[in-house]
Specification:
The structure is a homodimer. With about 375 residues, chain A is of the alpha+beta class. Chain A contains 10 helices and 24 strands. Chains A, B: Belongs to the gamma-BBH/TMLD family.
Chain lengths: ~375, ~375
């Protein structure tokens, strides 16, 4: 019997540590590794994860077995370690399973193994006004897989990047975005044109200043990445302003825990509406992940509906909201830059809030193009580049 | 002074009840309505929602005022009801606000008003095997706004519909989906072809049976609506099976509350991976909304990664998962139909689980096309049709 043929994955799992002994218990197998770690594997889990070609279709690497079709009390007749260091299980019903030790270690669910996986997750880096701006070169990211990966890792972990040397023909942005994946369309189009328009269907398409916001907080899933590409910028004003929303939220949590808690708990409605569409989303301004880390900021004052909470909570909600906005205005947190033609911003729209100073259309033309790509596509691209 | 010029909305707000009296308090105004209801409106809330053209840009109907630019303790000098029954507020700083009573009643946040709004939200209708299938006619929904609305309401509230009389040319589905909105693209394309392929990158593209599942549980936001359009169906087998996932989850909550709770709490990883992409999403199988109602089912056995929870929780997770799958297999819950050419399914992918019996490609051709549209686009379209 050679190395397990079908893993339900396209990743490889190097041998980190050899299996040492295997001990059968009533409802699980207890593995001891060469480094002394002990990992329990329940019978159900092992049978469920059998990688053989009967249980996993080798072309798609997707599971065919459904665990419910196996008795709940199925137990092994025999368990052993083979010559290649794999865990082998001979089941009561005659089926055999064989597990590669690299794969098994990567999926072990003893506490040290789970803690190790958690610790190896990417760490975000919070920033303030003095962030050394991560700048990348268009040609490099278009042609070189490693330059692309470095850019995408910065987008993921810092949430704000600039790309320079981008062609200034309208539509050029599309080619760059497609280096990651397809573009997420919205009612504003596949690419949207940020220009002052008489018949604007968003304040973004005026010459007004725009306060710090995320785009499309009016959707259940706010777009993950936002691109803003400068084609022409001859108008006075219109500087871009960025704030790390996670840094702002963490500052609020420190300074005013009650306000932080209110913004995590009380849902607020956001609305994009025009003659042809009417988008509404009700969600808290700050979302936390399962570990209590800030996972998302949802905020656009100009898209906010009237607060709708109990009369008892209303004053507290205003206090919290005012404090959050005030924090985003602190100069120590704000990075301000003017974007020049051929440059573009690519940032995490669910983390990095963006704003624009008012500009004067009488002083010259200003034309940006923008688009969105979701976090799922970013992370998939990173995983494939890292294989 | 005529009726308030700019509302920050495109909806109309009919006069449900007149304003009777207005009483100023320290931090709020207390309104009594003609029907006796009493509504508090805090000063901050009133100032924040001032609909005048200085505070709201009349072209986009988006707010320009930021409440943080107004003192936190701003109070009215005077409040009165004008000849047209509007609430008028003269602020200390000289600004004046005027609120239409129809709009004010629709946004009042006293408890009876909030309970009324909650009760008027659309109610889902749970179903079992004997659902009278909601069937709609292609020509009618393409040409008639009311037929379109009726179809979309059934999609929203029942979560399973069939459309008949659809042209069988490849690509026809696109026109129908675009009656709602743009299509949500995925790594499988804008339209995907469901056919048995030698180089399948998903078990969906084989002739295997597919157990009950949602599509793309591997994305943070599972697609809201799924379309499956039958072009050719000459092969034996391949019947479509549907189960109301909300009905299944509610049955589980009744029969086995601990299992229900485990599936709401313990995250499970789902994976779509091939040579070009690697999507992973970690989330519980059952998601609840803020009121504790089941809001979403995330499930596809063939896309599931190994369970990764503590050894203490592992047996309970398997017990709960097995019980859920067993429930979806109960004939009383399953609706089974064979789709014929020119028919299509449109269903709520985050609620209605779908399955396919195995088919025999040797007995004839079978070609379906599918696509996705998100819930946001569905609900926006319904709101515009209902204006």
């Amino acid at each position: 019997m050679k190395t397990a043929a079908a893993f339900a994955d396209f990743r490889s799992y190097p041998l980190v540590c050899a299996l040492d002994t295997v001990k059968p218990l009533a409802d699980q197998v207890l593995i001891t590794w060469a480094d002394g770690r002990v990992s329990p594997f329940h019978h159900q889990w092992l049978r469920d994860n059998c990688p053989c070609p009967q249980c996993v279709y080798s072309v798609t690497r997707e599971q065919v077995l459904e665990i419910v079709d196996v008795p709940e009390d199925l137990t092994p007749d025999t368990t052993w370690l083979d010559d290649e260091g794999c865990l082998c299980v001979g089941w009561q019903d005659g089926h055999q399973s064989r597990f590669d030790p690299g794969w098994l270690r990567a999926h072990a669910y003893d506490e040290p193994s789970r803690a190790e996986r958690l610790a190896s997750k990417p760490q975000r880096r919070l920033w303030q006004h003095d962030l050394p701006l991560p700048v990348f070169d268009y040609q490099a990211v278009m042609e070189d897989a490693d330059a692309l990966l470095q850019w995408l890792l910065a987008v993921r972990d810092i949430g704000l990047t600039q790309v320079r040397g981008v062609p200034t023909e309208p539509g050029s942005l599309q080619r760059l975005a497609q280096r990651i994946s397809f573009i997420r369309e919205s009612n504003f189009g596949v690419l949207f044109n940020v220009q002052s328009k008489a018949d604007a269907d968003s304040n973004a398409y005026t010459a007004f200043n725009l306060p710090l916001h995320s785009d499309l907080p009016t959707r259940e899933l706010q777009p993950g990445l936002q691109f803003l590409h400068c084609l022409v910028n001859d108008a006075q004003g219109g500087e871009s302003i960025f704030v790390d929303g996670f840094a702002v939220a963490e500052a609020l949590r420190q300074e005013a825990p009650d306000d932080f808690e209110a913004l995590c708990r009380i849902p607020v409605e956001f609305r994009n509406k025009d003659r042809h569409s009417d988008y509404r989303c009700l969600a808290p301004i700050i979302a936390l992940d399962a570990l209590g880390h800030v996972a998302e900021i949802r905020m656009a004052n100009f898209l906010r509906g009237p607060f709708d909470t109990s009369a008892e909570q209303m004053p507290g909600l205003y206090r919290a909201y005012r404090r959050l906005i005030a924090l985003t205005r602190e100069p120590r947190l704000r990075l301000v830059r003017r974007l020049e033609p051929g440059q573009l911003w690519c940032f995490d729209n669910r983390r990095t809030l963006h704003a624009r100073n008012a500009f004067d259309p009488a002083t010259g033309a200003r034309h940006f193009q923008g688009c969105y790509v979701d976090r799922d596509e970013l992370l998939s691209r990173i995983r494939v580049l890292q294989r």
